Automatic annotation (TrEMBL), chain A:
Source organism, top-level taxon: Archaea
Naturally occurring in which organism (per UniProt): Haloarcula sebkhae
Protein localization: Cytoplasm
Subunit structure, as described in the record: Part of the FGAM synthase complex composed of 1 PurL, 1 PurQ and 2 PurS subunits.
Reaction(s) the record says it catalyses: N(2)-formyl-N(1)-(5-phospho-beta-D-ribosyl)glycinamide + L-glutamine + ATP + H2O = 2-formamido-N(1)-(5-O-phospho-beta-D-ribosyl)acetamidine + L-glutamate + ADP + phosphate + H(+); L-glutamine + H2O = L-glutamate + NH4(+)
Name under which the protein is recorded: Phosphoribosylformylglycinamidine synthase subunit PurQ
Active site: C85 (nucleophile), H202, E204
Keyword Hydrolase (UniProt): yes
GO molecular function, one term: glutaminase activity
Automatic annotation (TrEMBL), chain B:
GO biological process: 'de novo' IMP biosynthetic process
Reaction catalysed by this enzyme: N(2)-formyl-N(1)-(5-phospho-beta-D-ribosyl)glycinamide + L-glutamine + ATP + H2O = 2-formamido-N(1)-(5-O-phospho-beta-D-ribosyl)acetamidine + L-glutamate + ADP + phosphate + H(+)
UniProt organism field: Haloarcula argentinensis
Signal peptide: none
Matching SUPFAM superfamilies: PurS-like (SSF82697)
UniProt xrefs under Gene3D superfamilies: Phosphoribosylformylglycinamidine synthase subunit PurS (3.30.1280.10)
EC nos: 6.3.5.3
Protein name: Phosphoribosylformylglycinamidine synthase subunit PurS
Binding partners and assembly: Part of the FGAM synthase complex composed of 1 PurL, 1 PurQ and 2 PurS subunits.
UniProt keywords, alphabetically: ATP-binding, Cytoplasm, Ligase, Nucleotide-binding, Purine biosynthesis
Principal location: cytoplasm
Pathway where this protein functions: Purine metabolism; IMP biosynthesis via de novo pathway; 5-amino-1-(5-phospho-D-ribosyl)imidazole from N(2)-formyl-N(1)-(5-phospho-D-ribosyl)glycinamide: step 1/2
Functional note: Part of the phosphoribosylformylglycinamidine synthase complex involved in the purines biosynthetic pathway. Catalyzes the ATP-dependent conversion of formylglycinamide ribonucleotide (FGAR) and glutamine to yield formylglycinamidine ribonucleotide (FGAM) and glutamate. The FGAM synthase complex is composed of three subunits. PurQ produces an ammonia molecule by converting glutamine to glutamate. PurL transfers the ammonia molecule to FGAR to form FGAM in an ATP-dependent manner.
Recorded name of the encoding gene: purS
Subcellular location(s) per record: Cytoplasm
Length: 225, 84
């Protein structure tokens, strides 16, 4: 099983993702976006970073690169795709997932650990957790505020497509525990099919025990499902 | 073919929070200016050759739909003028 980690100009969590995946016994390879998606990949990570300098909007340029058409095609045929941070912005910009990630309510770049409540433990990305379980992951973003129309968000909630919500350490979703002003405190969502997902927090930065907590392992393990 | 300039203005939909605009407004108020609200927008000026103003507007609209605006959060409008 080989996971392709896509490198765009300005990606900077690509090697972290490879290392985290390899620590979980996945084969992972870096794929430069201009080289196209290898035919034999079993999963795709859109990693964090600042592709194209966040020009226009975070993720806007990368979302229109030719490899994203290949990734949408692979996703429609069942290949799991996970977008993390800038990869989440790219995922939403390319319509793999609904909504948009835009400027934090604080208008600042925020780099901190947050608590997340598992909203739906019945997806590949969350099956290692329990519904309502609280995990701790780092965030590092300036444009992580989840925006979508109220009607559409209600639909996503009804369809159980919210993976994680920002919460306090007891698992209560409060405005104070929402680091970026995301609607309904959403930190991650799935696409039309649950094998496609995006999230702003970084599971790959909480996978190697040398770096502290390993709450993110369960998300990456989703590629095995 | 005639040379046109299509001006595409992309702004956040009403009701979508604009933290940069709020920060800018606060800065203006700190400088002593009095204002009720401030909205920001991105303006793109596209020089292109087209058979007609309508044709130029149609192409600019496609560019707005495909890249310049994100329909989830943005509205946009387009004005076309013959290039000078």
């Amino acid at each position: 099983m080989t996971i392709a980690v896509i490198q765009f100009g300005g990606s900077n969590c690509d090697r972290d993702a490879v290392q985290a995946l390899e620590s979980l016994d996945f084969d992972a390879e870096l794929v430069w976006h201009e080289d196209g998606l290898p035919a034999d990949v079993d999963g795709v990570v859109l990693p964090g970073g600042f592709s194209y300098g966040d020009y226009l909007r975070a993720g806007a340029m990368a979302a229109r690169s030719p490899i994203m058409a290949e990734i949408r095609e692979a996703a429609s045929e069942g290949t799991p795709v996970l977008g993390i941070c800038n990869g989440a912005q790219i995922g939403c910009e390319s319509s793999l997932t609904p909504g948009a990630f835009t400027t934090n309510e604080s208008a600042r770049f925020q780099c901190e650990h947050v608590h997340l409540r598992v909203e739906n433990a019945d997806t590949p990305w969350t099956s290692q957790y329990e519904d309502g379980e609280v995990v701790e992951l780092p965030i590092a973003h300036g444009e992580g505020r989840y925006e979508i129309t109220d009607e559409r968000l209600d639909e996503l909630e009804a369809e159980d497509r919210i993976l994680f919500k920002y919460c306090d350490e007891d698992g209560t979703v409060t405005p104070e525990a929402n680091p970026n002003g995301s609607k309904h405190s959403v930190a991650g969502v799935t696409g039309e099919a649950e094998h496609v997902a995006v999230m702003m927090p970084h599971p790959e930065r909480a996978t190697l025990s040398d770096l502290g907590r390993t709450d993110g392992r369960g998300v990456l393990t989703g590629f095995a499902d | 073919m005639t040379a046109f300039t299509a001006t595409v203005t992309v702004r956040l939909k009403r009701g979508v929070l604009d933290p940069e605009a709020e920060t800018t407004q606060r800065s203006l108020e700190r400088l002593g200016f009095d204002l009720n609200d401030l909205r920001s927008a991105d303006v793109f000026e596209l020089d292109l050759d087209a058979d007609s103003a309508d044709d130029a507007a149609e192409r600019a609209e496609e560019m707005a739909e495909r890249l310049l605006a994100n329909p989830t959060i943005h509205d946009y409008d387009i004005e076309v003028a013959q290039a000078e």
